[in-house]
Specification:
heterodimer; A: mainly alpha; Alpha-Beta Plaits; five-stranded antiparallel β-sheet; two-stranded antiparallel sheet; 7 strands; about 60% helix; elongated; disordered N terminus; B: alpha/beta; two-stranded antiparallel ribbon; about 15% strand
């Protein structure tokens, strides 16, 4: 193992990590305020503490605290919640007051609340409500009736506490808004829910408002742990399941191939075939059957072209395919369409026609290529009704299928005036590829197209089809053209140019644009002997560096 | 009073920031999952037979800058020669290597210097020579020898020579998937409403994989800890980040190790910017700005397939240098294109992507360290809420593990590249350790990157020492 060099940066990093680790291991005791009191009463208006004490025979000192909406009366001063809770229970037994509860005077800690009780004040006839609240509101000491040391300490601590609410939610939303929302939730529950459900509902609200947000994070942590465990199980069982499924597919594929091959070669009849084909009702098995039939179709020809669709129908796989094609999920639509197109063409026509202009690109592309397969006489007739794009990728696929199945080459000029630009461009490419010279006049018309690619293809067609009549047309549009099209025009002159074009090409050489100059030199050099001579004469102009260009263009690798 | 106000504001800011970053990552993960599912289905139904044999396949130029690559250059070029695509050329740019990279290549492929006229449409350092082979078998190979100018400069020179309508920028020592070109060209060929200007793919870590003649024979998880952590990191970044941004049309970065671009648009933009170390991100942002300026609809696409395998740094020094450079590159790009920030003219890029990168990629390490230092300070002063601290710590830790584990799951379900159970187990274990040991290093390097950028004004690349791929066991 290589020795690690300790640079300054690494040292600082490791020291910081060490400090964090020590801090975590030996946390410094917090000197934050953590004291608990027992709330014995709360009221919207101040109450007579002496009367209250007398009535319930309370000997402990009661401190009156004023909060935003209530006067709260607390006793005691405990360092832990447990101690406060124990005292509260004993106090409740001793005095007979129910609904009392411990509360913390430190912010951000929410304590469980007891159920709301109403204690009518006999003297004032006002209900004395023991409020249930989230204990993270500012407390301000109004009454300082302190008798003993504990209360003195408690008062000091209360005085020293942070006097503003640091809970983000309360500060952001406003304390009143938060409580109002809580009250609204409770009122809603009381009005709309049954008694049985109401109990749980109120409890959930209480807990949510009482427990600190820390509980939410704890829940999320458990949620994450659960997720991780779930993922581990998925990963484990995915592997297992995948291997099992692969094995299953392998076994049944071999079985189906053997049985269907025997049937196709007339070794067994259909009745025996259906007996030997096991579990053909299961969806996975039906998928395997379809893949077997696809395989046969790719590898077996001639008489099998009819027998394979026959099997497809006999096994009612065409119904499955049709149902898939009707699905709202694009993947199923494509699968269904492909199965019908390849294995049951008569059932595919309507489906394919329906999807020719589908909004989903993939479905549409598949429908378009399927149409070509299904209409060998007029493979591109769908251009006439096409209102959606015919992408370059689909064009490549369409051409591939077209060649693969040796379909009849149509006259692409019939589609040159399609509204779709991609269709026009595709037709131009096909015209060039199949050397359909008879379409020259139509090609020239497209030189006026606003689409650059269309004009480029027209120029290319004029070049590769040696359409001499187009020469003047492309020279006329040269000044306004893009660089790409200009290059193509210059290249075209190599094939269809003559002595009339020497000046034109020379002007390009003199223009100084390097890329255009290279092509102009190439065109002049290879047009004919006369043009070559013309180019060599330009050598005399040293500024043009013609020799360099000639060396470049005469190397066939450039 | 002031201290109290400061504490309140700062703590609230940290809390809001934390909630925001977690929420955003969660949102990106969900969007990524949707997009990944769509890509998986699309992958099942797409056939590439047509493009392999098509005379209409668009021409692609593979541009590979090389600097002191004598160990692996021959192997890598041979690997590039076996890509499954009918119409492409390879342009390797010898960027002023000090070793015998060029001589070795000339000898191996029987190259000779050609007379070549170059149209310097985009600036680059002087091109000394252009070499092509005498043998027809290497017809599609071109070597450019030029003065040293850095990766961006080398790429620019390759673009000048390129004949293709599209080019791919790669690292010459990366292993490109043989099907990469077919898959990368697909988005360019499919869109009709918008012009696709760039496409990126997933980069994978090839450490400990078996490579033979530049081909990936067997995939393994790395043996060493640092590359292992980077596997997790890359999974997260590519499968739960970039995928989402691509779907939302907010992708600002295509890796320099593998990206396909429209050559015409790149030239119109002026090529790669040579004065930054984040040339990959800077180019994509500039291309996007260009399209907005021209009022042209466009798209930056992304293929979630693992198309490129690269050697990840396995030493702290090299990894630190790389991360430092990435940080500086990010800052450079963000500042160079500051006018995008919250600018509605640039749409989603201006209102979401760029601000996201500013707040949650660039500033994240800075805010994180400030938070740590603040906590240390209040811990020393004796005022922290320890239960809250522990809960938050565990929350962050488990969130990070969950995120990483989901990334492993996505990768496994989608591509199933790591086939053995022990590999998955190793990755999962790494996901548990990574936040504790690797993340602090990343944080440090990011901060160092900020320091080098703003204080030391460092602009250089730094040294990337490569060891080459492991030889196969014979």
């Amino acid at each position: 193992m290589k020795a690690v060099k300790f640079t300054t940066g690494k040292l600082i990093t490791y020291i910081l990590c060490l400090i964090c680790a020590i801090d975590l291991a030996f946390p410094i005791e917090s000197h934050g305020i953590q004291h608990f009191v027992i709330q014995v009463a709360a009221s919207k208006t101040p109450i007579d503490i002496q009367q209250f004490s007398k009535r319930y025979k309370i000997t402990d000192s009661i401190i009156e605290l004023k909060t935003a909406d209530r006067y709260r009366y607390v006793i005691g001063n405990f360092e832990t919640l447990r101690a406060a809770d124990q005292f509260a229970r004993q106090f409740a037994i001793r005095t007979g007051i129910s609904g009392i509860f411990p509360r913390k005077l430190d912010e951000n800690l929410e304590i469980a609340v007891s159920e709301q009780k109403k204690y009518p004040d006999k003297q004032s006839q006002k209900p004395l409500v023991i409020a249930r609240t989230i204990d993270s509101i500012p407390l301000k000491i109004e009454n300082t009736k302190i008798n003993n040391q504990n209360i003195n300490n408690g008062k000091k601590e209360l005085k020293n506490q942070r006097n503003k609410n640091t809970n983000f939610i309360f500060r952001f939303l406003g304390t009143n808004n938060v409580y109002e929302f809580k009250n609204d939730l409770i009122v809603y529950g009381n009005k709309h829910f049954s008694l049985y459900f109401r109990k749980f509902y109120i409890r959930i609200i209480e807990k949510t408002y009482s427990y600190p947000i820390i509980a939410l994070f704890i829940l999320l942590i458990f949620f994450f742990i659960f997720n991780v465990i779930l993922i581990l199980l998925i990963l484990y069982f995915t592997n297992y399941y995948k291997n099992k499924r692969d094995r299953y597919i392998r076994i049944y594929r071999n079985l189906y191939e053997e049985v269907l091959r025997s049937y196709l070669f007339d070794e067994i009849d259909w009745k025996k075939t259906t007996l030997k084909l096991k579990k053909i009702r299961k969806p996975l098995n039906r998928k395997i059957l379809i893949s077997v039939l696809f395989n046969f179709q790719d590898n077996l020809r001639g008489e099998m072209d009819n027998r394979i669709p026959e099997i497809f129908v006999k096994l009612e796989l065409n119904k499955d395919a049709r149902n898939k094609a009707k699905s709202s999920f694009y993947y199923n639509q494509i699968e269904g369409m492909r199965e019908l197109t390849n294995l049951y063409p008569q059932g595919a026509f309507a489906v394919v026609k329906h999807f020719i202009n589908a909004p989903n690109d993939l479905v549409r592309a598949d429908a378009q290529t399927s149409y070509i397969r299904l209409h060998p006489d007029k493979p591109f007739d769908f251009f006439k009704t096409l209102t959606s794009p015919f992408t370059r990728w689909t064009q490549i696929t369409a051409f591939y299928l077209f060649r693969l199945h040796e379909l009849q080459v149509p006259s692409f000029v019939d589609y040159l005036h399609s509204e779709q630009t991609n269709v026009r461009n595709f037709c131009l490419r096909m015209i060039i590829y199949f050397q359909q010279l008879e379409n020259a006049t139509e090609i020239f018309k497209l030189l006026k197209s606003p689409v650059e690619t269309t004009r480029f293809l027209c120029i290319k067609a004029i070049n590769e089809l040696w359409l001499f009549d187009g020469k003047e047309l492309i020279k006329n549009i040269y000044p306004e053209e893009t660089e790409k099209n200009k290059l193509e025009i210059i290249k075209a002159l190599k094939n269809i140019g003559n002595a009339d074009d020497f000046d034109f090409l020379e002007s390009i050489i003199f223009s100084g644009f390097v890329t255009l100059k290279i092509e102009a030199c190439r065109s002049l050099y290879f047009m004919n002997d006369e043009s070559r001579e013309r180019l060599i004469q330009l050598r005399q102009n040293a500024e043009l560096e013609i020799d360099k260009y000639i060396d470049h263009i005469t190397d066939s690798r450039n | 009073m002031f201290v109290e106000i400061f504490r309140t504001v700062f703590e609230d800011f940290i809390l809001i920031y934390a909630i925001s970053i977690f929420s955003l990552y969660l949102w990106l993960a969900i969007v990524s999952a949707i997009e990944l599912r769509r890509n998986i289905y699309e992958g099942k139904i797409t056939k590439y037979d047509a493009i392999i044999s098509s005379p209409f396949a668009p021409m692609i130029t593979v541009v590979a800058p090389a600097y002191n690559e004598t160990i692996t250059i021959i192997e890598n070029i041979k690997a590039l020669q076996s890509l499954y695509y009918p119409n492409y050329e390879i342009v390797v740019v010898n960027d002023g290597s000090k070793d015998d990279t060029l001589e070795k290549t000339i000898k191996a492929f029987d190259l000779e210097k050609l007379p070549f006229v170059i149209d310097y449409k985009i600036p680059c350092k002087e091109i000394i020579g252009v070499y092509k082979s005498k043998k027809k078998a290497y017809n599609n190979l071109t070597i450019i020898d030029k003065l040293n100018g850095g990766k961006a400069d080398a790429l620019n020179s390759g673009i000048l020579i390129a004949k293709g309508d599209y080019f791919i920028s790669i690292d010459v020592d990366s292993i490109i998937d043989p099907y990469a070109l077919q898959k990368l060209i697909k988005p360019f060929s499919e869109e009709t409403d918008r012009k696709v200007i760039a496409t990126g793919g997933v980069i994978r870590i090839a450490n400990s994989c078996k490579i033979e003649d530049g081909q990936l024979i067997e995939i393994n998880v790395p043996d060493k800890f640092l590359p292992l952590c980077q596997v997790i990191e890359y999974n997260r970044a590519f499968l739960m980040g970039r995928l989402a941004w691509s779907r939302l049309d907010g992708l600002l970065l295509i890796s320099g190790a593998l990206g396909m671009f429209d050559k015409e648009i790149v030239i119109a933009c002026g090529g790669y910017y040579t004065k930054t170390v984040g040339e990959d991100m800077e180019l994509v942002v500039r291309m996007r700005k260009y399209m907005v300026k021209k009022k042209l609809k466009y798209k930056v696409a992304y293929i979630p397939d693992p198309l490129c395998w690269t050697e990840a740094p396995s030493s702290l020094k090299v990894l630190g240098s790389q991360r430092n450079r990435w940080t500086r590159g990010t800052i450079d790009t963000l500042f160079l294109h500051w006018n995008i920030f919250f600018n509605p003219k640039y749409g989603f890029m201006g209102m979401v992507s760029h601000p996201f990168w500013v707040f949650f990629e660039w500033l994240a390490p800075i805010i994180e360290i400030l938070g740590i230092l603040y906590f240390i300070a209040i811990a020393i002063l004796g005022e922290p809420n320890w239960p809250f601290f522990y809960v938050m710590l565990f929350f962050v830790y488990f969130f990070s593990i969950t995120f990483s584990t989901y990334a492993i799951l996505f990768d496994h379900l989608a591509y199933h590249r790591y086939k053995k159970k022990r590999m998955i187990f190793k990755l999962i274990m790494t996901a548990w350790i990574e936040p504790i040991f690797f993340h602090p290093l990343v944080l440090y390097w990011a901060l160092r990157g900020n320091f080098d950028y703003f204080i030391r004004r460092k602009k250089a690349w730094g040294n990337m020492t490569r060891v080459g791929f492991a030889k196969p066991n014979i």
